[in-house]
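Researcher: Let's run the pair from yesterday's discussion. Sequence first, then tokens, for each.
Model: Starting with the first of the pair.
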Amino acid sequence: MVADLDRTAHRLAELLTVGGDRLSDPTGSDLVFETVVELRALERTVAPADVWAVDGGQALVADAACLHVYLTRAATVRWRYGACVSEDEGRLDAHLLGLGEGRATLAASGAPVDPDAAVDVNLLRDWGEWRATAAAVEDCDPGGLVLVDGDLQPDWRIPAAWVAALLQRAASRRVRLAGVTKHSSLARGGAPLVGSLEAEADARFGPRATWWAKVAATRPELGPGLAVCVARLDPDARFAFRVDLPGDTDLPRSLGALSALCDDAAFPGYPYPLSVADGLAACPDWVKQDAWQRVEATLAAAGVPLEVRERAFTDRHRLMERA
């Protein structure tokens, strides 16, 4: 018998079905939420001629509890006139983290982060994605679009001024940026906001409508900043997504152009260039195994005995579960 399971389930049911009206972000992001969220019909327009998509991946290669070896990479995909013309899975970067070792990795990466900041794999992966995004902005044709997996708010350790400068650079080149989040933490009255808006839109527009709503923005002192929207981008899509756009963007026009990239049968409602980048960025088991074999060979060549390696990296939990 699981203690308090019924009470927990009843409270969850209350939040999901009753909830409330207050919008929030449990992750603590500094957003200013709309007083009234207005659902609007979305009209699909024409996809930009040049579209870039960036997504990051990571993998744990070796775990000694106090020390970890990780891999990260950022994949980039380019679509021109509706066809994929470039797929770059990104360079695999290895990182030793724990006991202060991550600071050397951070310094080598060139990240604009306080050198005394705590370093983890999330920061390193996020910075790799932002570097790839900045490169895509430079290479994208004017009038094009650069898609980022996730929101356009970076890891809190990356200065907001750095991202603001990137947004300004994109605007000066007439390149639009958009971030699409697969699973948003935004909430309304304690329940997931995206799901709440999906139900509201179904009741208002019908089950096959495309729609959007602006739900939040970054603080005005940050300049144009960001507009945070929720949108259902394809009539066959089961789900809507959070979409971040620069605050001075024509939101209906940008979302309509984004919608034109979301009619793939395998992933309806999600931009297919990003789905390709997602697959490229993943670090499958064979990548982790190959990396571990190289690490282990280097340790052996350096004179680290097998028993020392086994004591450091053997997963005792997994051994106990197999017993």
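Model: Moving on to the second of the pair.
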Amino acid sequence: MKQLNAKFNFDFMGRRKLAYVLSAVLLLTSVGSLMTRGLNFGIDFTGGVLLEVGYSGVADLPDIRNRLSASGFGDAQVQNFGAASDVMIRLLPRQGEDADNAKLAEKILDVLREGDAAVDLRRVEFVGPQVGEELTEQGGTAMIFALLMILGYIMFRFQWKFAVGSVAALVHDVVIVIGMFSVLQLPFDLSVLAAVLAVIGYSLNDTIVVFDRIRENFRGLRKGTAVEIANTSINQMLARTLITSLTTLLVLLSLFMLGGEAVRGFSTALIMGIFVGTYSSIYTATATALALDVTPEDLMEPKKEELLDDMP
């Protein structure tokens, strides 16, 4: 690790203005899409119908999706739960004749039994829109509360300029990840919300590691400007950041490719978060602290007054 760190000498902060432009473009695109297109909310937020069916053998999910799509249920979310023979089907709220849950369940069961006559309907459940509204409010409240607690923690551990930088990075990451789901119109459900909260934790951890090294160098290095010390600190932690990001990314790519529909949204959000979080811990968080004119004196421990002995 030390040998690898010694080879890095990039001028990250010298390119921070270019990073400002890139972040501004990503944020404007994300916010614009959220305001115009919105999110493609899943059944957890919109309400709808949930069905559980059982097969005698391993369920063929692609075939189930194709049959439902051909019968007018193209919005159905199909995934395994528990055993490979158990299937969960989620549908957005239906209008007209299909609004009757019993009739809807019978219609879907008929479609599925065309492929396998032994399909067994185990449960039909209606998720009301009021539940969706409560989940939306609670999810937003959880994010705001998390950001406020993080702000207080960084102010206590470091200094308010670093606290502003860390929260700016977290807001930056959350808005861009959610915005990309809006731009691509990917399904946004509770698993994606959980991934967004996990991105906050991942990005914060990376940011604190960088800030910790900056604080050490501010106190230890006698020469150099704040920008130079920040560059030195980032280069010293770059190997650790890359190794952590790459190993995490390998796991998430495995989940994305092999985990199936159940974890597709979760892994997608975290993959986006890895890239955005690594970028923001280097540029957004540190660059914001430098923009607020952080100096080594901000992190110096206050000198204790020496007590003079009156004795001769």
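Researcher: Give me one sentence on the second I can quote.
Model: Residues 166 and 208 are 8 Å apart (CA to CA).
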